[in-house]
Amino acid sequence: MWAGAGVSAVAGRWKRYGMQTDTVTRFLHALSPASREDVEQLPREQQEKMAEEWERYLRDDTDLLSLSELDPAVAENRAAEHVIRDYF
Asked: Over the Cα atoms of the chain, what is R_g?
């Protein structure tokens, strides 16, 4: 499987179930409630940068790639929490 498959699979799942496909919305949804509150206080531009970094991390981290096939929600959460650690 190629490295971008994890992100594509996750995005496809969101679309298939009629869920929001906006990157920032998906990123916020992947965060824990406490982390989500912190990120929601940031300017939208900063949220967008974090969401882009989150997608790159999901796509490029080989450990998460395997996890995303087994439990996509856990992989998304781990990637999101990793991204915000760099900011807070």
From this structure: 12
